[in-house]
């Protein structure tokens, strides 16, 4: 399960310019990525999600994972101690079988629940103040 949720009074501007006021933060959530598991903090936001953008990795998570991003090579390397994981950022899946140690970042599933079930578990049953 999730750790205790911490109340917050922050205001966020999302990439689509929508303003939202999250109620809570989940700290130290285990995030499995390939062979690694990282601890990350999440701000719980109630907004209309775009299924094409399931999760945005923010700078704090990329720092925790000691990420190296090769923009021209279209790959990201996550490091944990002396081990690393190369994530192929290309959308061409035909090349994956030629690289057994590469994985793709198309979606990171944190919960094995539907969106509705996640919201029930993460957010209190009070009505949102968001428009």
Automatic annotation (TrEMBL):
<keyword id="KW-0695">RNA-directed DNA polymerase</keyword>
<keyword id="KW-0808">Transferase</keyword>
<dbReference type="GO" id="GO:0003964">
    <property type="term" value="F:RNA-directed DNA polymerase activity"/>
</dbReference>
<dbReference type="InterPro" id="IPR021109">
    <property type="entry name" value="Peptidase_aspartic_dom_sf"/>
</dbReference>
<keyword id="KW-0548">Nucleotidyltransferase</keyword>
<protein>
    <submittedName>
        <fullName>Reverse transcriptase domain-containing protein</fullName>
    </submittedName>
</protein>
């Amino acid at each position: 399960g999730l750790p205790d949720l911490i109340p917050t009074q922050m205001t966020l501007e999302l990439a689509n310019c929508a303003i939202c006021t999250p109620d809570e933060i989940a700290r130290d959530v285990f995030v499995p990525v390939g062979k690694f598991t990282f601890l990350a903090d999440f701000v719980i936001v109630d907004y209309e999600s775009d299924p094409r953008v399931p999760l945005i990795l923010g700078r704090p998570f990329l720092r925790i994972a000691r990420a190296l991003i090769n923009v021209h090579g279209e790959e990201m390397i996550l490091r944990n101690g002396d081990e690393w994981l190369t994530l192929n950022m290309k959308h061409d899946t035909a090349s994956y079988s030629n690289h057994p140690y590469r994985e793709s970042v198309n979606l990171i599933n944190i919960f094995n629940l539907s969106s509705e079930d996640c919201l029930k578990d993460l957010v209190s049953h009070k009505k949102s103040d968001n428009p």
